[in-house]
Amino acid sequence: MVGEGSIGSNRVLLAGPLGWMNESGPPLRALLNDYQISPDRLIVIHDDLDMEFGRLRLRRAGGSGGHNGLKSILQSLGTPEFCRLKIGIGRPAPGQDSADYVLEPFSDEETERLPDILDRAIRAVECVVAEGIEAAMNRFNPLASEA
């Protein structure tokens, strides 16, 4: 699923996998090929179990951190050189399966917080596109930041 738009004078594509996130690498590679986009122009937005719910963290590049969707993307792209916006979802309860946890609905409290979290995520992506990854990391990565 792909949509086109702009952030300032920058043309952007927003794409979401229609299949399993764990198998999103091949369709992403095809999308980048179709639009002739280099992986270094990519921003992958994904959940992160190792961060508290709602925390944002931008990274310039890196490994999968155990995230199966990122493993698929890394394997398909053949490079770790793409930006990531991680959105914390917190850890499952002791004994709860991580796969089940990431697929379950948000709690009422989490659902109430989603509009603010998504607003900050949108502003973080806009900042990356308009001002660059360094400015966005400085603004959105600090724990106290509600930029």
Automatic annotation (TrEMBL):
It comes from Nitrospira tepida. This is Peptidyl-tRNA hydrolase. Its EC number is 3.1.1.29. GO terms for molecular function: peptidyl-tRNA hydrolase activity; tRNA binding. Belongs to the PTH family. Keywords: Hydrolase, RNA-binding, tRNA-binding. The keyword RNA-binding applies. It comes from the Bacteria. NCBIfam families: pth (TIGR00447).
